[in-house]
Amino acid sequence: MQKNHCPLCHTDKFNYYKAGDDYLLAKCSECGMVWDNNPPVNPTAIYQEDYYNNDFPKGGYSNYFQGMKINSQTFRKRLLKAETKLSGQGLLLDVGCALGDCLEQAKDLGWDNPQGLEVSKYAVKFAKNRGLSVYQGDLFNHNFEPNSFDLIMLQDMIEHTTDPIAQLTGAYQLLKPGGWIFITTPNLGGFWHKLLGSLWYHYKPAEHLTYFSLDTIKLALEKSGFSDVESKPTNNSMSVEYIFDRLKYYQPTLFSFLLRIARTLNFHKLVFSLWIGELEAWGKKK
Ligand SMILES: [Zn+2]
Q: Coiled-coil ranges per the record (predicted)?
């Protein structure tokens, strides 16, 4: 199904650009939004067990389970930032919560009964087995009441969808007045994209369907009704092991070798805070 209108400003004025072999993306001539105008018919079909554990690190998660502990540090930092925004804790909904790592951190920090929403049947089952409150569904299919949540998090989620305004409007309705949305997503305007061009690791055909810059994520939030909107580059905590594992995509032999050395010399668990080309954005429900 062709999507020949900008998902943000709805104009039909756009140009194609090549984001890889056989990967054409549309870029809006008016607002700069970038999207895949020929997305899969059922975009969520791919998020099953092999998505969370595979040997092709550009798509899905490679060694997700090993990376878990490291992701947890990132989630913890984000939740602490949210506590500053909210002046405390509140009822949290993590949309696209995957296996529930962020919810685990929230519980650990003392957040009361954090909730998750996730399309993957496999991930929901996994998270429930960890004792987390996670429901299978998305922002259009769920049983939550409007005006329920103090904080809604969409972490590396919105780029997997085709209609960001509809997603954000759905989140807006679920927030209490005064509640906050927090988003992370790849930053199309960032340094790594400028450097790597079509080799940029966030270009994921059939998986990432919309691509944002600091400006377009702001526009999307404003068009969805949010106030106090801000966007800025963000960093992630990562281990040596995770970094080498990701770089295997570019240089399999070299980085498999370095990974083996790191494990042998036991520095694979060392953690860095890295700017990997993501952005974070905040918005408040009036
Ligand atoms: Zn546009």
A: none
